[in-house]
Every structure is written in structure tokens, then in C-alpha cells.
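STRUCTURE:
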């Protein structure tokens, strides 16, 4: 089982790193991070805060875009080329194929995130910032956010064309950063049916703001170990749920 998962993951990684859209997004992310140093010169006494805030924003946004535009082709490309049927005809279970593909993509995103993080930390250090230990939680949480976006992209890629999958995943990414506000909206919903729908949306939609700690990092406030563990548990459980749905929806 482990050998099959590793083989699929490595093949997916090799295929993903050759994707030109990945290189394009990486270049844009590095350019945006570098531009934060220019903007920091326009401020007085807040250079490090500007570099930190814009750097983490670039890491989060472009990381999510990479997860979307690589993840949406993950299953669809295999179905379109009919290679999925050849793979599943071998002693490879559906879940092994899907999890292997997912792990390969997450390995790709780990490498890309590492490159962006090293570049970003280098800029902070160059601008005279403090030791990067307080920045590490934000980078780890950004990667966890990517893990959820990737799983969501795989679900949509299993049931829709790449274009529709991209639209749906980006929309869910945007809504996921606002979904936490649905809890307060319940106080203004009188209808029991409407409350049931709102509750379903609240618990069904991803709460991506959980992974946004830029404000704490900018002001060098600590992110507790308990918070990190809760975020890891949430990302793991939500990802597992999405992959299960994708496995059920996957043709073959």
C-alpha cells in the first residue's frame, strides 16, 4: 500500500512541477514580496510591518491560487486522457489513487511554499527584522489552508470541467474567509428552516480565517501551541471529509 501511494505521489509531483502555471504564480509571488520593500520605503518606522504583512499576504494568496489551478486538473486530466481506468484496472484502490495524487500535490506545494518562505524570511532579515520564529506559525497555517483548498479543488475537479472547478473553488475560498460571520447572522434569522440552512452552511463551509494570523505576526504577538493544534486538527478533518466526497464522486 505504501509503495503504491509513494509511486502515485512521486509521479504527481514530477508532473506538477513541470506545469508552467506553477512557475508563473511562483514568479508573481516573489515579485509581489519584493515590491513590499519598495512600499516600505514610503513609510516611516513601519518598514518591517509592511514587509511582514505584504509578504504573508502574497504567500497566502498565491499559495491558494497554486492549489486551485493545479488541483482542478488533478482528476479531470486523468479522466480526459482515460489513464484513470488503466490505473484502477491494476491492484490500486480508488482511495489509494486519490490520496496518492493529493499527497503528490501537497509535496509540490510544500516545495513551492518553502521557496517562497525562504525568500520572504530573507527579506524580513534584510530589512532588520527580528528572529523569524514568530513568523513560522503563520507560514505553517498558510500551508494548512492550502491543504483544504487543494482538497476542495479535487472535489470539484471530480465532477466538473476545469473552468467550472476553478470558479467554484475560488468562490469557496472567498466565502471561506467570511463564513465565520454566519454564526452572528443566526440572531437575525426568524425562520426555523432558514436557521437550519444557515447552520448547515456554517458547519459545511471551510472556516479559512482560522489560518489567518497576519495581524498577530505583524505585531509580534505569539500564536499558542493549542491554537496550532486545533488548526491542524480542523484542517485534517475537513481535508479527510473532502477527499471522501471526491472518492465517491470520482468516475471509474
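SEQUENCE:
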Amino acid at each position: 500500500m505504501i509503495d503504491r501511494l509513494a509511486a502515485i505521489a512521486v509521479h504527481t509531483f514530477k508532473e506538477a512541477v513541470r506545469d508552467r502555471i506553477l512557475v508563473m504564480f511562483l514568479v508573481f509571488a516573489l515579485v509581489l514580496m519584493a515590491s513590499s520593500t519598495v512600499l516600505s520605503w514610503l513609510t516611516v518606522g513601519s518598514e518591517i510591518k509592511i514587509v511582514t504583512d505584504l509578504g504573508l499576504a502574497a504567500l497566502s494568496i498565491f499559495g491558494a491560487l497554486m492549489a486551485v489551478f493545479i488541483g482542478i486538473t488533478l482528476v479531470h486530466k486523468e479522466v480526459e486522457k482515460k489513464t484513470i481506468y488503466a490505473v484502477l484496472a491494476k491492484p490500486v484502490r480508488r482511495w489509494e489513487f486519490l490520496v496518492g495524487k493529493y499527497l503528490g500535490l501537497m509535496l509540490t506545494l510544500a516545495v513551492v511554499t518553502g521557496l517562497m518562505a525562504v525568500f520572504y524570511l530573507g527579506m524580513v532579515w534584510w530589512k532588520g527584522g527580528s528572529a523569524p520564529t514568530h513568523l513560522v506559525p503563520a507560514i505553517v497555517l498558510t500551508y494548512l489552508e492550502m491543504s483544504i483548498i487543494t482538497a476542495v479543488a479535487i472535489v470539484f475537479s471530480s465532477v466538473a470541467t476545469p473552468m467550472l472547478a476553478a470558479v467554484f473553488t475560488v468562490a469557496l475560498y472567498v466565502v471561506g474567509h467570511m463564513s465565520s460571520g454566519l454564526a452572528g447572522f443566526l440572531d437575525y434569522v426568524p425562520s426555523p428552516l432558514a436557521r437550519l440552512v444557515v447552520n448547515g452552511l456554517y458547519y459545511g463551509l471551510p472556516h479559512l480565517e482560522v489560518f489567518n494570523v497576519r495581524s498577530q505576526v505583524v505585531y509580534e504577538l505569539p500564536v499558542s501551541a493549542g491554537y496550532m493544534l486545533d488548526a491542524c486538527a480542523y484542517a485534517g478533518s475537513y481535508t479527510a471529509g473532502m477527499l471522501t466526497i471526491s472518492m465517491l464522486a470520482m468516475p471509474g
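REMARK: The longest helix spans residues 94-126.
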